[in-house]
Amino acid sequence: MSTSPDFLVELPLFSGPFRLLADLVLDQRMDVCDVPVAGITDRYLKEGLDRIDGWSLEEATWFVGVCAILLELKVGRLLPRPLPVDEEDLLGGARPDVVYARSLELAAFRRVAVALAEKMAAAALMAPRSAGPPKEFAHLYPDVMQDVTPEMLRAVAALVLAPPKDLDLSHVTSVGVSLADAMEAVRARLIGREDARFRDLIDGCHERIEVVVRFLAILELHREGKIEMAQAHVFGDIEVRWQGSTEDAPEAEGGSG
Fold first, then answer.
1. How far apart are CA 70 and CA 213, in angstroms?
2. pLDDT tens for residues 160-170?
């Protein structure tokens, strides 16, 4: 399914239908870093709102899927790592949880860089005063230390050197699951059966973080080539089948009778 052919994009290096632009990037004939995904998305939404009929569900779904792939490729290019050989290494060279953590670090560095640039620009406009007041006006300035007493210094030192208060972390929920445990749980449920649905693999997960980690475990096993996933239609059940070797799979429960 493709998006409407009349959705055109205007870029410094490309002018034409968005579908052709996506094909050029996915075929590695155009650098994904030259594609402003955010700007294209804003224009796509604005054009959809201005149209009388708007974009259909199939067209919008295809557009979102392609933009997600372009963003994943761009994040892989921007992360600090050895240069990959091809675009497939960008998608499969790092674990999903590591990629997510690195993206958060990259966003934090960008915010710090903006804050430092603003402070440096403001400091560049300042000039320090190197000369003191004229001698004829020196007697007009009071002694700033004449009212300071040892008791005042002791009070200030007690306030500055006092140990910090205990930080209340009762509102923070600790993560009690790991990616390795989730991968073992997925392996244990897939071995001994022909296939399973995604909802069967997350059965027993009571917290949202457990579902997220279980989903990351499935993606990691798929990246390693140990499972195969299929989806018959959009928003349908995801079928998962074990493709790993018998050495990789856990022993079936119960054994042989």
1. 24
2. 999 888 877 77
